[in-house]
Structures
1.
Amino acid sequence: MTSILFVCLGNICRSPLAEGICRARLEAAGLAGRVRVDSAGTGDWHVGKPPDPRSVAVARAHGIDLTPLRARQVSRRDFTRFEHILAMDASNLSDLRALSPDKGGARLVRFLDRDVPDPYFGGPDGFEQVFAMLSDGVDVLLADLIERI
């Protein structure tokens, strides 16, 4: 089974949005059972907490429910559990590389060809912009994955 882990700093804004978008697109394509999707953060500040209410609101506005999600921190085990670990920005990618065991099997890359900005300290418009970036990125990712599964 193909597996994807989206990673940001605290796992309450960007990565749960990416996870929710990806799950919704997989469900719509009838592929929900063929791809395992999760999200995590490099930091531990929000472990066990739900996504930021602004992430929940923007997702809900697009028909996606993030309320079941809870933040977690990346573990060393994730590097063997997931085929693709996708960082939201260069800083997250650097942190993931530092955490990665020498023989991790995951493909570890930045999710987009540019950083996905952290909307945490901004207003709702930032969350909508991040949603649009993530939505476009998920479409590209899934088009590539669907060809291989």
2.
Amino acid sequence: MNKSLSLTIFLSLLFLISFTSHAQFSKGTKQAGGNLKFYRTVVNNEYTTPVSFVQQSINENSEIKILPRAGLFIYDNFSVGVSVGFVNNYTRTKSSAPQFNIDQRTASNLAATQVFGRYHVNITDHLILFGEGFANSNFGKEKTTVVANEYEEKVVGFGVGVKPGIILMISEKIGLETSIGLLGYQQETRKPIDRPELPIGNTNTQRDYGLSLSLATLDFGMQYYF
């Protein structure tokens, strides 16, 4: 199938959807669905700066997020709801130099919860823009492996933010949605498990805040409205 034919079929489907579907976001409407995210980056450095002893390095990062959600429109075009799900993060750093090699892997499995409020603006009967404010939290464990040594940490995080998105109604009650971009604040704290060599109460804390428009903020979802 050539590109022109594929484009023609895609545009025809959009045209058909525009005349066969419509959104009904009145007060009392319920929604059920979820969001799915998969993000991966790989950095392969075959050389480094003159001041570094490392000659070659590979950095891998991936994130998988599954968040089922449910909501209720308490006003026309404004819904509130909650989502409960799962987040997996994986990082690997592999470095080599004349006298040493480092291979460090870190994996975390976290339970995630989120409450949200979302305002919808109908552009057409099948195309809706939304702005969403949310507060989230996550908790679980993270394991780091360096050579033959393994270390575990407790992880607790929370955040608040706002993000824009768009919904395409493919039928009267089913919408496909995506969002990209985030303005907000996120904090994550780690505490060591079974590390007697460390002072009691030591923690590592990471704080992120500001505006991000990177692909790392891209989410996809599907909602059923009834």
3.
Amino acid sequence: MRDVRRFAAWCEDRGFKVETVSTIHLAAYREALRKEVSAPTVKRHFSALRRLFSWWVEKGVLERNPVREVKTESFSRSEGKTPAFDLEDMQALLSSMTEPHLLNLRDRAMIGVMAYTFARVDAVCKLKRKDYYISGRRFYLRLDEKGGKQREIPCNHRLEEFLEEYLAAVGELEPNAPLFRSIRGRNGKLGEGAMRRTDVYAMVQRRVKIAGIEGKFSCHSFRATGITTFLENGGTLEKAQWIAGHADSRTTKLYDRRSLRAGIE
């Protein structure tokens, strides 16, 4: 959305209307971006615009998508930039939420889901009570990921413990009720609505600060942490790829921080 707003402001400054934007305009915008941002950021901008214009074509607002004809520089990265938690920091983070307070239990369970299932924050926010279930002797989480993909991931025994303690504190929930609910007002109680990704981000920042952990982390950091820890403990790249829901193992490799943990530059 930020990328779209930036393009809209650029068009407005020059008096361009959406229905008259052509490939030439977009090529000029690309050149303007190249002077201000990196090649990966230019690609991200045009990915956002390509999807936006495709949606307009689909809805009949425009006849064609001019973004498709504008090329951006090829770029690849052998390692992603998302920071991962050290094991000591992860232990400190989880240990800071051991008091049996409802919010502690909720936040610990949510962080556990992101770390142990490598789930994206959007998928975690979408979880309903019925998506945590038992099959045979194991508990599973049913995650609805981007692109309409659905994953059913067996719960690590520690994650199961976090979820069970949280649900025991919450009480009975309807099958379609959000699994992780937002805070209602200033009384510290949980409301009926699901947490949004902005709520989760704010929660993570608060928890990192309380735990005294230095560094800049996000919700995605738990994805990198989970994949790295899984590989360190003997998990295969193919299995990590399946759990993460990646179409290509090269994407999974971007989250592998084992070389950094070993002190290799």
